[in-house]
Write a structure and sequence with these properties.
Number of helices: 2
Helix content: 40-55%
Strand order of the largest sheet: 2-1-3
Shape: rod-shaped
Largest sheet: 3 strands, antiparallel
Number of domains: 2
Structural class: alpha+beta
Order of helices and strands: HEEHE
Radius of gyration: 28 Å
Mean pLDDT: 83
Length: 88
């Protein structure tokens, strides 16, 4: 064996480790891309709500239409408060 040359079994382990690292890096890359794409979901709907008894305005809530509808339903289902909401 020459100086600096690795035994064959050690070389194959090095190659296997390298392939494993490549596969792991690819899986992590896919996960990151998937999260980025999911977070880019459009926030194209906002709800402006006012509690009519106190004139309290919590500020606009902007999200997907489904989330905005759920937000409005939640506010309007509060028995002790009277909410007036509009979507824009």
């Amino acid at each position: 064996m020459k100086n600096g040359a690795k035994p064959k079994s050690q070389m194959s382990r090095t190659i296997e480790n390298s392939e494993m690292k490549t596969k792991l890096a690819f899986i992590i890359l896919l996960a990151v891309v998937s999260l980025i794409l999911k977070s880019c979901e459009k926030l194209d709907v906002c709800a402006t709500c006012i509690e009519t008894t106190t004139s309290y305005n919590p500020g606009d809530f902007c999200s997907t239409e489904k989330a905005v509808d759920a937000y409005i339903r939640e506010l309007e289902s509060t028995a002790s408060q009277d909410w007036q909401c509009t979507k824009n």
